[in-house]
């Protein structure tokens, strides 16, 4: 474990994109995550599955610093995210250091969270200009590239309220990618969509998984999607990992009875 903000976790070139080390998260007396330990390698696509309330979304929110760690450490590219060891004590990092770390991470939420008073293009360019300091011209050019990528090149001047749910979620994906993140978090990105719109969003995400080396940490109940894009699947229950395997093993021959019961219910 690093003692200063400049040190990294051991591993040299094998330093993971994400490391969870003895992570604890409580809401009051309710322990949501208890002594959680796992890594996500650079370029790896890891999917978290399990029943509602098992802590999956909380993990993503901790990485985005939308929730505060109760205990333990999260490392991003080997560097402590929100807490570090200093003189043998666990201490919070400075807010500006945390903010710098979070620019490496993008997240797509269940709800699209687009600004209704802004055009699609403005929604995508707002953060790159004001957070990353990109010029408006550079941000606009990249936004239009991403809109083409998600199949919405003709919607740059539209407002979100004039788009379908599936189109809005594709804009949200483009917005996350506009920050050029090294890590992309996906939180049940199809759960708010009508069933007929799910396919268009998953197609975009499959293309991103296939054609980029971006690290992905995914929470989904779309098991076919998980099977297609994941390198590894982790089964959560009660705030802990009870099984992990490659998709072909997890979905065809899980070892734990709890995993078998869950998959039988959702497949």
Cα separation of the termini: 40 Å
Query: What percentage of the residues does DSSP assign to strands (E)?
Result: 25-35%
| CATH fold naming | Rossmann fold
Summed over residues and divided by their number, the pLDDT gives a mean of: 92
Largest sheet: 6 strands, mixed
- Strand neighbour order, sheet with most strands: 8-9-10-3-11-12
What would you call the quaternary organization? single chain
Number of domains: 1
Helix-and-strand structural type: alpha/beta
Count of helical regions: 9
What is the string of SSEs from the N terminus onward? EEEHEEEEHEHHHEHEHEEHH
Please estimate the helix content: 25-40%
Which CATH first-tier class would you pick?
Alpha Beta
Annotated CATH homologous superfamily? P-loop containing nucleotide triphosphate hydrolases
Q: Give the radius of gyration.
A: 19 Å
* CATH architectural group: 3-Layer(aba) Sandwich
Could you tell me the number of beta strands?
12
Uncertain runs are: 1-12
């Amino acid at each position: 474990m690093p003692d200063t903000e400049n040190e990294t976790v051991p591993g040299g070139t094998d330093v993971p994109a994400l490391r969870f080390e003895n992570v604890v998260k409580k809401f009051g007396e309710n322990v949501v995550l208890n002594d959680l330990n796992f890594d996500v390698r650079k370029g790896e696509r890891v999917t978290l599955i399990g029943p509602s309330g098992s802590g999956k979304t909380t993990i993503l929110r901790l990485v985005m610093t939308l929730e505060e760690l109760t205990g333990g450490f999260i490392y991003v590219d080997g560097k402590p995210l929100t807490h570090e060891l200093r003189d043998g004590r666990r201490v919070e990092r400075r807010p500006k250091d945390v903010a710098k770390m979070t620019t490496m991470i993008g997240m797509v939420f269940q709800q699209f969270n687009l600004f209704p008073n802004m055009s699609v293009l403005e929604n995508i360019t707002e953060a790159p200009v004001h957070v990353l300091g990109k010029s408006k011209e550079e941000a606009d050019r990249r936004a239009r590239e991403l809109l083409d990528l998600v199949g919405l090149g003709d919607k740059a001047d539209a407002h979100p309220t004039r788009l379908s749910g599936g189109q809005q979620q594709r804009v949200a994906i483009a917005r996350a990618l506009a920050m050029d993140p090294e890590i992309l978090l996906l939180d049940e990105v199809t759960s708010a969509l009508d069933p007929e719109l799910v396919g268009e969003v998953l197609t975009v995400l499959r293309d991103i998984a296939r054609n980029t080396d971006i690290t992905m940490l995914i929470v989904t109940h779309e098991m076919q999607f998980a099977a297609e894009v994941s390198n590894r699947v982790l089964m959560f229950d009660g705030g802990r990992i009870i099984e992990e395997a490659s998709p072909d093993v997890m979905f065809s021959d899980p070892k734990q009875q709890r995993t078998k019961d869950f998959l039988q219910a959702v497949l």
